[in-house]
Design brief:
GO terms for molecular function: DNA-binding transcription factor activity; transcription cis-regulatory region binding. Keywords: DNA-binding, Transcription, Transcription regulation. InterPro entries: Homeodomain-like_sf, HTH-type_TetR-like_transc_reg, HTH_TetR. By secondary structure, the protein is mainly α. It has two domains: 58 residues, no CATH class; 140 residues. The protein is 74% helix and 0% strand. The chain is globular and about 55 Å long. The N and C termini lie far apart (86 Å).
Length: 206
């Protein structure tokens, strides 16, 4: 069968299956990166027509935002459904398990994609608000919800969640550049004290 024939077949397959197409696009970008990103190249890479891709994603920005959302929701689903993650009894324990998982080469691809995206943002100005939500705010909310379940006030949880997110990304950048897993693992362990649940308020009787 010709390449065009395979592409036409996949286009029909994906015509009404946006989520399936998004999974394929996400995997393609995780493998190939986003240097010189073009929708025609993405369509070619996942085996669909340019028109089919445009039917679901009208611009590169919309596609990238959808990919970032897909990565985040996949991580959230694994936090809830993976026995090794779901059984974590505290946020600190979950952080350690997530760190081990995200240090696997296949998982590190999402950080490489993140760093590429940051490099595309305009200097000295505001970037795309939708990308800001997908890159930062939605991830912070994910951690805040977890901390709130352990008794944290949301106002106190937000800066801690921000630090957790920055820690994961900063240490992954360090690991990808320097390759010193032992040192960054020790840094993760040192940071866990930030995640100790707050002491419950106590009343003083007179």
């Amino acid at each position: 069968m010709s390449t065009d024939g395979r592409r036409d077949g996949r286009s029909l397959r994906y015509q009404h299956r946006r989520s399936e197409l998004l999974s394929s696009v996400t995997e393609f970008l995780l493998e190939q990166g986003i240097a010189n990103l073009a929708l025609r190249a993405v369509a070619e890479g996942v085996g669909v027509s340019h028109a089919t891709l445009l039917r679901h994603f009208s611009s590169k920005e919309e596609l990238l935002t959808a990919v970032l959302d897909h990565i985040r929701t996949d991580v959230a689903a694994r936090m809830a459904g993976d026995p090794g993650l779901a059984s974590a009894e505290s946020t600190a324990e979950l952080v350690v398990r997530m760190w081990d998982l995200l240090c696997e080469p296949k998982e590190q691809r999402q950080f490489l994609l993140l760093f590429e995206l940051v490099g595309r943002q305009p200097r000295g100005g505001q970037g795309d608000p939708a990308l800001a939500d997908s890159l930062v705010h939605d991830w912070i909310e994910l951690v805040v919800e977890r901390l709130a379940g352990e008794g944290w006030e949301r106002q106190a949880a937000e800066p801690v969640a921000t630090l957790v997110l920055a820690q994961f990304r900063g240490l992954q950048l360090d690991l990808l550049v320097a390759g010193d897993r032992g040192r960054v693992d020790r840094a993760v362990q040192t940071s866990l004290r930030l995640l100790q649940p707050p002491n419950p308020a106590t009343s003083v009787s007179g």
